[in-house]
Amino acid sequence: MAAQQATPVLVLGIDFGTTYSGIAWCRAGKNNEIKFTTNWKKRSFAQGDKQKVPSAIFYHHLNDEDPEWGATTPQDDTVLRWFKLLLVDEKDLPDHIRHSVQLKTARALMLKG
After folding, report:
1. Which top-rank group of organisms is this from (predicted)?
2. Cα–Cα nearest to 112, from 70, 62, 66, 64
């Protein structure tokens, strides 16, 4: 009887951070070399190829365009940032985070949408 071939296993690591996020992956058993996604879509060449991109989303409220995310978002106050902290029960956040401008802005943008 021929030996069964092992099913390939792809291992993904997702770092969903408050300010930056990234993805790494490897094929289990195949030298376990970890590779990082670095070819993110970006707004300008100056942003370069980085392992992480901003944890940011921009919704085009005035038209039907797809939302922009990561390094493609504009650098202004209409970009949703720090939204990860909206997943946490507010009472579990330290006061300086709960009352921060960034979190208040994220909350307001979520309610606006």
Report:
1. Eukaryota
2. 62
